Amino acid sequence: MLTHIVIWKYRAEVSVEERQEHAARLRRLREIIPEVHSLSVGFDVLSLPRSYDLGLVAVFRDRAGLEVYTVHPEHVAVVQLGRSITEHIASVDFEDGEKT
Fold it and tell me: Which one, of 73, 3, 7, lies nearest residue 36 by Cα?
């Protein structure tokens, strides 16, 4: 299994409605892209100085599934939206049980 984690820090002027639309479009990817094994999206609840605003955890059976997801037109469109409304994005991808 391969886990894909992304976090977004929105620009201050981005409205609540824009943030909610971004999250909703991310959530819909599970229904649209069959290679997604599981997907969770949620807003930060602690509001710490180090916190980001939104997080996504997606799990794929393998790297090939992530690659299909990465280039899927619906995912590409959501990526473009996310880039347009954020000041910073971070991600990590790892295979469960992989030794370093």
Answer: 3
Task: Tell me the longest C-alpha to C-alpha distance in the chain.
Answer: 42
Q: Which domain holds residue 91?
A: 2-95
Count of domains for the chain? 1
In what side-by-side order are the strands of the sheet with 54-60? 36-43, 54-60, 2-10, 86-95
Helix (H, G, I), strand (E, B) or coil at 100: coil
Q: What global pTM score does this model have? A: 0.92
> Is residue 67 included in any domain, yes or no?
yes
Mean pLDDT computed over 48-56: 97
Torsion of CA 43, 4, 99, 65, to 10 degrees: 160
